[in-house]
Amino acid sequence: MDNYARIKAAKSEKKADLVIKNAKICDLACHEIYEGDVAVADGVIVGCGSYEGEVEIDAEGGYVMPSFVESHVHIESSMLTPAEFAKLEAAWGVTEVIADPHEIANVAGEDGLEFMINSAQGVPIDIHFMLPSCVPATEFDDAGAVIGAGKTAELMKKYDFFGVGEMMNYVGLLNLVPDVVEKVTTERCVDGHAPLLSGKELNAYAAAGIRTDHECTNEKEALEKISKGMYVMMREGTQSKNIEGLYKAVNPYTLRRFLFCTDDRYLGDVMREGSISNCVKKAVGLGMDSLDALIIACLNPSECYNLGRRGLIAPSYKADMIISRDLTAEHITHVFKDGKLIAKDGKALFETKNADASKVKNSVHIAPVASSDFALEYKKGMPVIEVFPKSLWTKCCETHEREELNLCAVIERHKGTGRMGKCFIKGFDLKGGAIAQTIGHDSHNITVLGDDTASMAAAVNALGTMGGMSVAKGGRAIAYMPLEIAGLMSDKCAEETLCEHDKIISAMGTLEVNSEIDPFMLLSFLSLLVIPSVKISDRGLFDVEKWRFFD
Amino acid sequence: MDNYARIKAAKSEKKADLVIKNAKICDLACHEIYEGDVAVADGVIVGCGSYEGEVEIDAEGGYVMPSFVESHVHIESSMLTPAEFAKLEAAWGVTEVIADPHEIANVAGEDGLEFMINSAQGVPIDIHFMLPSCVPATEFDDAGAVIGAGKTAELMKKYDFFGVGEMMNYVGLLNLVPDVVEKVTTERCVDGHAPLLSGKELNAYAAAGIRTDHECTNEKEALEKISKGMYVMMREGTQSKNIEGLYKAVNPYTLRRFLFCTDDRYLGDVMREGSISNCVKKAVGLGMDSLDALIIACLNPSECYNLGRRGLIAPSYKADMIISRDLTAEHITHVFKDGKLIAKDGKALFETKNADASKVKNSVHIAPVASSDFALEYKKGMPVIEVFPKSLWTKCCETHEREELNLCAVIERHKGTGRMGKCFIKGFDLKGGAIAQTIGHDSHNITVLGDDTASMAAAVNALGTMGGMSVAKGGRAIAYMPLEIAGLMSDKCAEETLCEHDKIISAMGTLEVNSEIDPFMLLSFLSLLVIPSVKISDRGLFDVEKWRFFD
Question: Which residues of B touch A32 (CB under 8 A)?
Fold first, then answer.
């Protein structure tokens, strides 16, 4: 903190380190836009006005705004390592990320967390890791790791996590399960996840100190949570898109309690439209005031998470800034972190190095499977999972014909137990082969789905020890995308990963499948036992409402 | 942090520790008022709704609001010790105080700071002490102590001060005086004091990390400071009243950047009208929305100063609350801190004990003075200080007659140097005696004013070694109010102190004096060398604009 340099530059007694000339400055404190230069010294903004700098960048009349905060994301869902993810985020104007690495934690426990932290080392944006609170997600899950309250306390201290990640187990918390209660009993920030929780149950959840929620889907829910002191995140991920349902709850008073997040977002979406910039664009498109959207994207999360002096273009605030041709950050030309240019014209200007991934590779531990392993006798009236377009919710379907169903299996892949749960599924309408993957929230066992058991076996076997995604046809694997890191993330760059992902999607396109669904995406949530109402795990068919397996 | 108790009480599985029944609940997050009960457990609010408690208090339809934050105050100006001051504040709904003990620091240095901290020990409200940054206020002052940057660093560590008190020496800071720059170079909060500073000078001041300002007197000034990232305090003290000049700058966007403070407020005013509650009443009286005023009084300072989860009536927020019959907190019936009732019907429910004051008593070190010491030859055209009603500003008057002037002297009282500055003053119109006191901002030397030198000597000698305020008439002291603590504060309770103060004011009333001024108040600022434009110190007449003594 060099106050001499700051004061001299602010008074124009010496040139600033950096000056952005000819800018429209977004003043989120007074809710105004005014013209001027922005001067930077010692990594912070030192003044707006007329300035000269050692380096000068002409904004050409573009907008200068604070850079964005991604308030809640599972980086693993992008299929990129934190280092590679950082490049995408930086290019789209995000310089602060609150990341919950709970996907990899379910596969690789502490090794996974350590890999994520190491991968983020040295990137020029701030990635703040939350310590996952629900590993595994439920007591019925067979994940690769268990992180109980004792371990949580140990890890919190060892790695100095930023806070505690989303407490999804609100049932356990409200029922006072000691392991759950202890995990949220901390002075650090605890993120929430409590869809539709209301009334006294929400009081109890909030009373335990849980500060945020990103599961709101309607205005009333958002306003109740805000009234109860929580910050509400408007999530716009790949699958869950909530801004449209929530933006009308924003008024000049509630404004300060909203944040944006993406939660789970595929790299393709991030590459094409960004993460938080996409939230801003979406909200403004729906009619939200542009500066309101920027307040939500920049200032509010800095306050919610105590990120220090950031979120305003004002003296002493960190020079974490965007120059954009438009107010909705669709055409970002420059991104600065601590006054340093880190991305230009949609491209990160920094290189990253791969962290040691030896402990989180080869995470698939199963014996080769055979076609016969998938044999399942069909009976009329047996419980079958039915899936639907644009939803992660399923229901139990008891009226069905064999020919409209696919076979689905979940195979435990962490400890080599050979445990496999099987069921029939309606709604995929997949014909001519099978798809398989090691992404399966949150335990990330292998999920495979198909219409012939030989292809199912081939698809599973194609995943090898690395894991990833595969497509098989006529009993032979025809495409495989490795996800070397824990079977969740690629160790390649974003462009190569996207290219590989495109290939797997193309291969799947050669099968017949319900065109209204995203098969891999839907498959990845079939084993998430906390979403209603019927799910499949390696232990069999699960009734979410009754909170037990089917007989 | 007992989350079991919180969750059980929130869910009504057991009675809450405390329930306020039949309340109108002020929801400052959603900007609404709704009816219900407020339940408290483990010191925090656990829910609003319908609740039963071990203790139940009927609000009788009154408003429940978060308790107030006094964002900037010199407790010494109340003439009460921190312990006694806490009782007054508590009775008026203030449970957090940001105090800058720079008056006593100028008299007694570290001993003074330690006394303040000790006096505040054990009171049930939070008094957060800032480390005074300007001791002495200027390089021309003869204060009782000097706290340079080295000492500041040492004290910060030793006493874990909350932050750095108002940096009044903006001239020194902008001119890069190392001692000044070093004092504000800290990660802790630094309060500001920069009347009318603007443009690049304000950029520089803010760039140095100074976070607040309480010297704004007009809307434009406030908005510029907010635009530059500062929090602006609307001050309503005894002498300086700024809400009227500022409240129109509050709009739904700038709202979140305003705070209230009193800075310097006499105990009589606090007793009659409170401190922050008076700000709320004043602002609402001028037309501000009541809930906006409460947001400024409760929520904003909690955010500005990172006071933790307080400022909302919501689960997990500290149960720091007021019940008031009206929205402007004029009729407060109950005040709670951490869920405990600490004041009722305008009276604090706690007792305090006196801290050891032995090191800060007997702070007056002068030899007895004689009438002859005040001899000063009058010359036509000599520079004379002219004072005015309702203002602390003075000017240099060169056209005067001897009979319209009073004699004034400032006597160094800390080191016994015998140094005395003398001058003539126009505007007091005091006849028939003299007044003297050991309150004289910020060095707190003795200031005496009168129309006969014998009374002046008597008034000064009456101050003894304790210091305080005195009135003399016909060469004899007729009233003396001791201020035992550093010559600034009484060691008695508020009621007795007020009674003694009333007596001294009555005694002064037996002299003839300009009825439009408050003589003791005006006298106490005559030696503050940073207020334009002519001042008197123990070294003589000072030209504030030229920043030097008169020849």
Answer: 227
